[in-house]
């Protein structure tokens, strides 16, 4: 009987040990499953960034014209580097750190904040990411380096033969200017345009007339630096009364 009792005790201990081992093993498996599930949930919660997104976050060097608008009007700039989050550009415009401006990329406009100003170079940070590749791909090769059209409100003087007309300039680019006038203009007429603050007359041709609006194409494109400087000065001129003086038609 003693031997039988001893044998039963050993069997119970063995069964108990096996049960505990089985429980521990099961617990370990469940813990591992919970760990894997937790890791999977964490991975699912993490932001997945594609290679393209990573590439667009890195600044790339470019040489492309763009425009931006601020409290005093629209301005030209030359973008020198850009990422989906920020850019640096050269401009003649007078801006200050912290100023809110709107960059127009043609295919989209983005609000941003001026973060640095160093001479004629500014750095801005976008409120929302920019699709850099879409901007670089927009437009054809012929126009990618052309300055965009800038909205203005300036007095201009036209000389058509011996006739002198005072008109309102509504937009300007390196290639031409849009004006408003009550006078009758004829498509195809050659003329000279004088702008207050611009040295010399600009030769051009009337290419389109629609009601009070007329489009004029310059015979020679304006220089980017000269146009940028004039636009920066025109912002100050818009804050003063515009008379009929200050136009230079002597040079062509």
Automatic annotation (TrEMBL):
Xref: Pfam families: PilZ
Origin superkingdom: Bacteria
UniProt GO molecular function: cyclic-di-GMP binding
InterPro entries per the UniProt record, alphabetical: PilZ_domain
Residue span, PilZ domain: 144-218
Protein name, entry field: PilZ domain-containing protein
